[in-house]
Design goal:
Blueprint (H helix, E strand, L loop, with lengths): L6 H24 L1 H8 L8 H27 L4 H28 L11 H21 L12
């Protein structure tokens, strides 16, 4: 199906969202203590296993960036490709939100919404924000009358 992505989605998915992913790569590889502190106020120095997990997440984010920067530009008028990429990324966004919530629950802090730290609010708000944009795209918001919703 041929379509022309609205400017907002084209810029968001091929420029802004990859920059968000790049910040995750940067933090996971070069500043693991910063990223771990954003998940838990009681973290300790990262273990070998934790570094392995952070490096794996960074590699995953590199794959995201490739899909966003290369594939979405190479298939700029293929709505099916755009929907597949954003749909799969939305699933990951929901997984991240569940993981953040599970981490708070394991710390016994799930009911302390007012007690969340800035870093934790940041994790939630960034993830919710990109998920809302992805969901809006998949629902056809701002796509014009000629584009079918998913």
């Amino acid at each position: 199906m041929s379509f022309t992505p609205p400017s907002f989605y084209r810029i968001w998915f091929t420029l802004i969202d990859p920059l968000v992913s790049f910040s995750g790569i940067y933090l996971n590889i070069l500043h693991p203590s910063t990223i771990l502190h954003s998940y838990s106020p009681t973290y300790h120095s990262p273990t070998i296993e934790t570094i392995l997990c952070l490096d794996t997440v960074a590699a995953f984010l590199c794959g995201y960036i490739f899909l966003q920067v290369y594939l979405l530009r190479a298939k700029a008028h293929d709505l099916t490709v755009w929907r597949a990429v954003q749909g799969s990324m939305l699933i990951v966004d929901f997984g991240l939100l569940a993981a953040y919530t599970r981490a708070l629950g394991s710390q016994g802090r799930l009911g302390e919404v007012a007690g969340l730290r800035v870093e934790e609010w940041g994790n939630y708000m960034i993830t919710v924000g990109v998920a809302v944009v992805r969901g809006a795209f998949l629902m056809g918001v701002g796509m014009g009358k000629g584009t079918k919703k998913m």
